[in-house]
């Protein structure tokens, strides 16, 4: 059995997310929940929801992609620890 690669993200310096295999999750209320609204994917591809659908600027916006960063598992564990201590 192959272990799935996990990539952690920090969105707007406050929302923790991860990609595990082909699935995306957000850390909310001290648990991982499915990213049903595509928060991570939208930011990775620079989707700007304020642009019209047919706009050539709706995808690839650097203003949007600047809002997400890949972080280490150690950083993710610290954020999880901090958030669970708050609740």
Helicity range? 25-40%
Task: Output the radius of gyration.
Answer: 14 Å
How do the strands of the widest beta sheet line up side by side?
4-3-2-1-5
The number of helical segments is: 3
Beta-strand fraction estimate = 25-35%
CA-based shape: globular
Give the rounded overall mean pLDDT: 93
- Number of distinct beta strands: 5
The major sheet is characterized as: 5 strands, antiparallel
Q: Could you tell me how far the N terminus lies from the C terminus, measured between alpha carbons in angstroms?
A: 36 Å
Structural class: alpha+beta
Topology as a string of helices (H) and strands (E) = EEEEHHEH
Unreliable segments (pLDDT under 50, ≥5 consecutive)? none
Q: Which terms summarize this structure?
A:
87 residues, alpha+beta, five-stranded antiparallel β-sheet, 5 strands, 28% helix
Structure description:
The chain has 87 residues and is an alpha+beta fold. It has a 5-stranded antiparallel beta sheet with strand order 4-3-2-1-5. The chain is built from 3 helices and 5 strands; from the N terminus they run E-E-E-E-H-H-E-H.
Secondary structure elements and their pairing?
Elements: E1 6-11, E2 15-20, E3 23-28, E4 31-34, H1 39-44, H2 62-65, E5 68-71, H3 73-86
Antiparallel strand pairs: 1-2, 1-5, 2-3, 3-4
Question: What does this entry show, briefly?
Answer:
The protein contains 3 helices and 5 strands, in the order ββββααβα.
């Amino acid at each position: 059995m192959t272990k799935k690669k996990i990539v952690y993200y920090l969105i707007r310096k406050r929302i923790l997310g991860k990609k595990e295999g082909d699935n995306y999750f957000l850390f909310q209320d001290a648990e991982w929940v499915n990213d049903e609204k595509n928060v991570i994917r939208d930011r990775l591809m620079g989707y700007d929801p304020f642009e019209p659908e047919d706009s050539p600027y709706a995808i690839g916006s650097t203003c949007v992609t600047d809002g997400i960063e890949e972080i280490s598992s150690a950083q993710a564990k610290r954020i999880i620890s901090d958030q669970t201590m708050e609740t």
